[in-house]
Amino acid sequence: MTLLAACMSLLYFIAVGIAFVNDKRKGRDKEIYADLDDDEISPLEDEREPVTAGHRIDAPTPVAPPEPVHKPLPLETRYDDMT
Hints:
Elements: H1 2-21, H2 28-32, H3 75-78
């Protein structure tokens, strides 16, 4: 089990190293956000709409009762000899 765990750890660290070297996003964030400070808030548009009452909902109509279920046929009459 220890040998298996060592092999798995070695493969994991090799994959992390390859991903670190082959990172395509390297340096991309610095160009886009170079003029913004970390503590600066983003400007939001101030188009507020007042909250109003919703539309009136009528009372629901009653649901019709279900129809009775018929008694199933015996097994001998529902299947043929081939099934």
